[in-house]
User: Fold this.
Amino acid sequence: MMKRKIILTIFITLLFTTCNIVYNVSASYHLRQLCVDTNGDTSTVCDSKYDMNETNVKNRMVYQHLGNTGLMVSRLSYGAWITFGKQINVDQAYEIMKFCIERGVNFFDNAEAYANGIAETMMGNALQKIFQTMPDVTREDLVITTKIFFGVKRPLYYPNRVGLSRKHIIEGLKQSLKRMQLDFVDVVFAHRFDHHTPMEEIVRSFNHVINQGLAHYWCTSEWSAANIEQAYGVAKRLNLIPPACEQPQYNLLHRERFEIEYKDLYIKYGLGTTIWSALASGVLTGKYNNGIPENSRLGLSSLSSFKQQFLSGKRHGPWEDIIKRVLLLQAMADSIGCTLPQLSIAWTLKNPHVSTVIMGGTKIHQLNDNLGSLLCAEKLTAELMDEIERIMETKPDVPRDWTMYTRL
Assistant:
């Protein structure tokens, strides 16, 4: 009897030790990047001078781990927000996704709320065509994501079709999978924080969909650092899987949350990020320097509130000052042989905490230009990065470290 108790005790100890090994979060993860060319050659890694010269980089994609996970994502990715269902049709969506895949992009972002589910349906149809016409591409090669929170009936309101209740996380994700014609997504995001649902219910629910094989990882989007910290605490207490990444806005005009608020999360947990709006809705492309074109993002009637926020100065400061800075940034881009969009994206790629930058162009030539940001990033020396800071004047203030304060 005593022998059986000892064996049982050892088994339970090993079980909990194993759980802690699998789900314990540590900042001592290895930030690895890998370059793969169009033929699948991975003989050299990205910090090799050979790998990143102009001849080779145009045919290569850089991949990076999604935070503290084993999942490798392309540093440039593509997102369906606004474009799918609002600006392009399914044939155009197919051509865009096909082009991205051919250039090594493997991460495709979506959400139940995008065009009230139409974006997911469009991506699902495009994916089916890709699997039919690109025999070398399998589901395993792609990282497909969606986000749950807002539902698909806006502006109408149905209480249980929104939020992060267990009911909506499970049922909303199943509906997303049906629209996308998939058995699972690789990553499911909590599109916003839900103040009305207990954190334990949220964490348990995302773990449930992972355990059911409906998703491989879960992440957050536009959560505060305090909310993310709370989620990690609940996951650790219950031996559950914490969020692997966060999807925040990040660009030269919007920096404080990413660089200051999340700083400790990168250090403590190795939090990954899938950033959106690297071009600030087109502002950092220079397309609005002489006014807002009708067919641009800020020219869309559905984004009239965005437009008003920019023009009024509520979003990133006085509009005239922004345009002056963009013009100076354009001159700098010209001087190093980059386009302004390439320079703007390249600046975000220089931050190692950016796992992937979500692109959103509606035209192939735009995406082709954006892909050149990988090469442009290699041109951004420390001196040029400092010059960008002097031009933009958007670097957030770092909180004072009072442990260094010595005056009496």
Notes: Residues 163 and 219 are 15 Å apart (CA to CA). The chain has two domains: 66-247, 281-394.
